[in-house]
Amino acid sequence: MKKVYLAAIAVAMIIGTSCKKSYTSPGSNSGTDSVTNIVTNGTWIISSYTQKVEDKTNTFAGITFVFSSDGKLTADDKGNKTTGSWSTTPYTPGYYGGPAALATLTISMGTASPFNKIDKSWNVGEKSNSSFKLDNKEPLEDEHLVFSKQ
C-alpha cells in the first residue's frame, strides 16, 4: 500500500510540474515603453551599419535622425530632410513551450537611397539612453544597425 501511495504522489508531482508555462527572460529586449522612451529622447546618428562582413556605416555619414513621439521619423542630411515613420511592437515571452517574440522597431522611410537600406522591421537588441542596436529579423541578411545619440 505504501508503494502505491508513493507512486501516486510521484505521478501527481510529475504532471503538476510538467504543465507550468515557459518563460524566457527578456533581458535587454523587454517592452516597447523603454524603446519608445529611448528613441524619442534626442537626435541620433547611425554609428554602425554592417551587412555580413561589409561595413556600410559611411552610407549614413552626416545624417541625423529624430524619432518623434507621434511616430514620425525625420532624417536630416545637411539640410535635406526626409520624413518617414516608425513604430514598435513589444517583447512577448514564450508560453507553454512556444518561442518568445522579440521587441521590434519598424522603420518606414520609402525607397530613396540610402534610406531604403534601413526601411524594414528590426529586432531590438542592446539599448541604453545613449545607443540602441537593431538586428535584421532575417538571419541570412546578417545585417546590424547601431544608433548613437548625437
Topology:
Layout: H1 2-18, H2 33-39, E1 43-51, E2 54-55, E3 63-67, E4 72-77, E5 80-89, E6 104-108, E7 121-127, E8 131-136, E9 143-149
Antiparallel strand pairs: 1-2, 1-3, 1-9, 3-4, 4-5, 5-6, 6-7, 7-8, 8-9
Order of secondary-structure elements: HHEEEEEEEEE
Poorly predicted runs are 18-31
Beta-strand residue fraction: 35-45%
Number of strands: 9
Basic shape: globular
Oligomer: single chain
Question: How many distinct domains?
Answer: 1
- Cα radius of gyration in angstroms: 22 Å
Quickly name the level 1 CATH class: Mainly Beta
Please list the strands of the largest sheet in the order they lie side by side: 1-3-4-5-6-7-8-9
Describe this entry's structure for a reader:
- The protein has helices at residues 2-18, 33-39, and strands at residues 43-51, 54-55, 63-67, 72-77, 80-89, 104-108, 121-127, 131-136, 143-149.
- It has 150 residues and is α+β, with helices and mostly antiparallel strands.
- Strands 1-3-4-5-6-7-8-9 form an eight-stranded antiparallel β-barrel.
- A hairpin with a 3-residue loop joins strand 7 (121-127) and strand 8.
- The model is unreliable at 18-31 (pLDDT under 50).
